[in-house]
Design brief:
It is a single chain. With 201 residues, the chain is mainly β. It has a single domain, classed as hypothetical protein yedk fold (Alpha-Beta Complex), CATH 3.90.1680.10. Strands 3, 4, 7, 8, 11, 12 and 13 form a 7-stranded mixed β-sheet that branches. Strands 2-1-9-10-14 form a 5-stranded antiparallel β-sheet, with no helix packed on it. A two-stranded antiparallel sheet has the order 5-6. β5 and β6 form a beta hairpin.
Length: 201
């Protein structure tokens, strides 16, 4: 799963690199966490949205609690009611410099960062929808881990190669789904001593 990723380039540079419009100023941190804003490419524009579809939660006595952001959409669940409409009609790309996974013993997990071996920015498959709670929101499609990730985690973001980006965004749901597969290219793995819990200062 992915619960933290980096986007180290400024929004204007990202829009230029992908050749898309940039209609608003994005105010996103370099490290993106569930429930916070990130940048996505949707409808030919670089847009700011909140990471995670809101999931309504109820307390013991039926009272409505603060919703939980569901930030990962497993590829094998995309045909389910929660995700299907968005995947069929509102797909997006999530630009990333790297993503993190937690490794180590319980209570002592540290951050392991994964990125493309050539240092280029990558894009993860995503889907989005409007919400009453947080405005437009997005979630990241997760697939089984490819060979470069298998020693770190059993799952990973569905990375969409540059040649496939237009097909993922504009193709049929079946064509887009076929592109959500384990990445078989080379990845860099950076195991750090930074605790998983808590944010960098």
């Amino acid at each position: 799963m992915c619960n933290l990723y980096r986007m180290t380039k400024a929004a204007g540079e990202v829009a230029r690199l992908f050749g898309v419009g940039f209609p608003q100023q994005a105010n996103t941190a370099q490290e993106v966490y569930p429930g916070y804003p990130g940048m996505v490419i949707a409808d030919g524009q670089l847009q700011q949205m909140h990471w995670g579809f809101p999931l309504a939660l109820h307390g013991k006595h039926g009272q409505l609690l603060k919703p939980r952001p569901v930030n990962n959409a497993r590829s094998d669940k995309l045909s389910g009611q929660f995700w299907r409409g968005s995947f069929e009609h509102r797909r997006c790309l999530i630009p990333m410099s790297a993503w993190a996974e937690a490794e180590g013993p319980k209570g002592g997990k540290t951050r392991t960062w994964l990125s493309l071996a050539d240092g280029e920015m990558c894009t993860a498959a995503g889907l989005w929808r409007p919400s009453d709670e947080w405005g437009d929101v997005y979630s990241m499609v997760i697939v089984d881990a490819g060979p470069g990730v298998a020693g770190v985690h059993t799952r990973m973001p569905a990375l969409i190669r540059p040649v496939d980006r237009a097909a993922f965004l504009g193709g049929t749901a079946r064509e887009a789904f076929d592109l959500c597969r384990p990445y078989d290219g080379e990845l860099l793995i950076d195991r750090t001593a930074q605790p998983w819990a808590g944010r960098a200062v």
